[in-house]
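Z., the sequence and structure:
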Amino acid sequence: MSAMKPQTIAYWVSTALIAAAFVLGGAIDATARPPAVAFLAHLGYPAYFATLIGVWKVLGGVAVLAPRLPRLKEWAYAGIFFDLTGAAVSHAASGDGASKVLTPLVLVGIGFASWLLRPQSRKLSATPADATAGDMRGSAKVLA
């Protein structure tokens, strides 16, 4: 059995942390229990927002863990970034203390580490290999 590289370990630790935060936090939000609704109401959001954002969080957390599906992962990472930066701004606008503003920003850093360290198999390539080969040859003939 070969030892895992530090980059691989860092990827899986950061991915597990961000996925856990989103799956568990999203499940709490999705249930729309009174504490979750009250928390979001303090930030200025309506009650129905808890279920909506909760389901999206769970789906995003699952997507970053799922094998393959690189395009879905790109959308999930974008959603994680939007959710967390929005949370930081919402806390700041609501007059919450620095710790409540900084916590989502720390999670942004963890999510960014997961995105940055992900292996090639989990990345969206610039151009799909199958389509590029056919398209490039056709373009070369037109240009020649």
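Confidence is low (pLDDT under 50) at residues 130-144. Residues 6-122 form one domain.

Let me know what you think.
H.
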